[in-house]
Amino acid sequence: MRTNKYILIYFLSLLLVGNVSAQKNKKGDAPAMEAWITNPDRSALLQHQSQASPFGTTDNGTPVINVNAKERFQSIDGFGFTLTGGSATHIHQMPAAAQDALLKELFLTKDNGIGISYLRLSIGASDLSAEVFTYDDVAGDTSLQHFSIAQEQVDLIPVMQRILQLNPRIKILGSPWTAPAWMKTNNSFIGGSLKPEFYRAYAQYFVKYIRAMKAVGIPIDAITIQNEPLHGGNNPSMVMQASEQAEFIKTALGPAFKAAGLKTKIILYDHNCDKPEYPMSILADKAAYPYIDGSAFHLYGGTIDAMSKVHEAYPNKHLYFTEQWSDGKGNFGRELTGNTTRLTVGATRNWSRNVLQWNLTSNPALTPHTDKGGCGQCLGGVTIDGSNVTRNSSYYVIGHAAKFVAPGSVRVASSVISNLDNVAFITPAGKKVLIVVNNHPQAQEFQVNDNGKLAVARLESHAVGTYVW
């Protein structure tokens, strides 16, 4: 009797487990859409919603965003920030435990991490450095015997080495704010142009930079030739007209990279969307064209669709979005909505392979910055005050993409809906990701259509949502 009792219990347990499994399988047959939301009043901050939205066949009559993963566009290299000299100092001066926790949050995706996957570094000082310097400030040193990145060993290199331990695949872009002053027409860090007689020496300056960074374990995936080449008023800065950049590439930089066997990409322009003719005129130069990977843009002037004009003219060359600031005197909600709309959605819909906001970290005083032209109003992705960290608007702008859209993802088609600005991707793991900004003055319910199945979502006015299924 006892044996029969145990046999009966055994078969009943099998029946119960089978019934539960059947329910799970039945539920799993219909995919569900998970959501992460940030509201402009900070009531939700990249907050995972507890209930996923199942896909079904019922249309509730609200606007529909159609996602078509079969229609594909550019691959994505990553989302991130510029790690300025000042940003590196803020991080490196944190207590060790706080620093480690912050870097894991910024560069990993697990737990609460946002998974930054792309960084821009200044080659020498930027205007958010404590002082102006290049890697060879010895006048007349055309053989670059005094070239050294030793100054970066203080903060930048140790921070980058730790970041690369966390994420060895992160892409790194280097951008100079100026050539050494002795190479320039005005012998100054501010303004002036590169003298043609120093084109070859300056090309070797880039070669030495890439090799020196590699020697300390920091691979430079790409360089731009000059940050904001049409703006000579910053400190530091250098003016480089399109004709000068074309000449420099074809006679000096391109041949130098080729002779050195470097695979580092050469990217044009690195300035505003109001002058797409700048990179296009260089790409029209048949001698310069083979050395060029693509063109980079900022958005302090012009409109983001300028990037598509370059793509349409030169579809085999890549596009990058490399800088947009966040205003230290700005409003969190306005910065969140505006930059997600114009950059995360706008730049990627216009063929950009990345989106970078300016300045990874700041301190409460928004220092350091250079005198006579340095930005005293640039707010970092996070503000660091000792061990305390405040997450600002651009942290969430980048986080809504970087956490979910891994490098190697591909932008896919999604319908344009009035005031529901959006962009969609498919990841290397096969997940679909849709980022939506509600630019309606009221809360908005909408539907996501994937292959004839509909899921319902809702966003508060000027909120941002990332949807994954």
Automatic annotation (TrEMBL):
An example GO BP is: glucosylceramide catabolic process
Ranges where the Glycosyl hydrolase family 30 TIM-barrel domain occurs: 76-330
Q: Where is the signal peptide?
A: 1-22
Q: Where is the Glycosyl hydrolase family 30 beta sandwich domain positioned along the sequence?
A: 408-467
Give an example GO molecular function: glucosylceramidase activity
Family statement: Belongs to the glycosyl hydrolase 30 family.
Protein name as it appears in the record: Glucosylceramidase
